[in-house]
């Protein structure tokens, strides 16, 4: 689980980009704003991952799998 | 994905048209929008600096923050947060303004200057890209201003309310504000108040939805090969260029360009500092205003840094003019590059474990 809550653009995308260098089959990331949801979603899709977004109060849990 | 690119392309086109219209309706040439110049004019309008040529509380700035605020409220994206190294952000905002006023424009106006045929802005663009690349170097090494935290609604509302109060002053008691005398300089050139306000509201709302950012466009393309924001950027240029050509406002060259100087090195270094600082802040001056409208208090502090920076630039003769840069301005830009580099290095290489 990558905790990117409170991180502003583009840090969450850099965090997932670094994590994805190990090419795991799935990742989970917690963010707290819609811009990060949009940006991470765009990057994950580009890297070939399917993504689902789960709202958890003020936060968003992103599941990425391939 | 294609839908997203179409939306941002159209948004860029609308913003380009609004910018050209503002010039036709009275704003200075190639200055339909300039966040740096307009914050500087507003600082002058409130008497924080006494450069008579640039004093006018620009309704565009008020409109940008309020347009974003209203759109964020409507989309349930008004979520106050802050606390991510606010004083560091203030300092970065201060020096971004020093860089912008060396060049004579923010990244937004840089695009509009290029679209007006001002080739001095090319040196600015090269510097801007170089500054962003330098910022990206630190981002890739782990640069962070640490996380932000949820803030109260009241905290997020302060800056939008300040904009409403500023608007009330401008409409109801303009006598207490400072205004550039007629023909007295760029501050005297402006569209009618309600037109400027409306333009700000429209662009603010669009930028809130699309997340448009001049720095983000180049940064995301370099970092992730993501071209979405860059398309918005390019469409502003293309539309403003077309608008200027149709309206006879296009004038290709370097000498004699409106509110610009021909010092290539200092145009380059000014925008280098602006691009570098903005990359470390996470967004261009326009984006900082939009985030302020969304209740982001870190961006509100950055806005205040830009504001105070603008006042200093004119109180201490750091800002360039059509005649060129000043010695004080050159020293300030060099100091700015050093300060921004120290901030980048300290927040990259001496990171402590997150609290």
Biggest protein-protein contact in the assembly: A-B, 21 and 26 residues
Strand share of the residues of chain A? 25-35%
Strand content of chain B: under 5%
What structural class do the secondary elements of chain B suggest? mainly alpha
Report mean pLDDT of chain A, rounded to a whole number: 94
Global morphology of chain A = globular
Provide the helix percentage of chain A.
25-40%
Tally of separate domains of chain A: 1
User: Can you tell me the CATH architecture of chain A?
Assistant: 2-Layer Sandwich
Strand order of the largest sheet of chain A: 1-2-4-3
Q: Output the strand order for the largest sheet of chain B.
A: 1-2
User: Per the principal axes of the C-alpha atoms, what is the gross shape of chain B?
Assistant: globular
Number of helices of chain B: 14
What are the low-pLDDT stretches of chain A, counting only 5+ consecutive residues below 50? none
> Helicity range of the residues of chain B?
55-70%
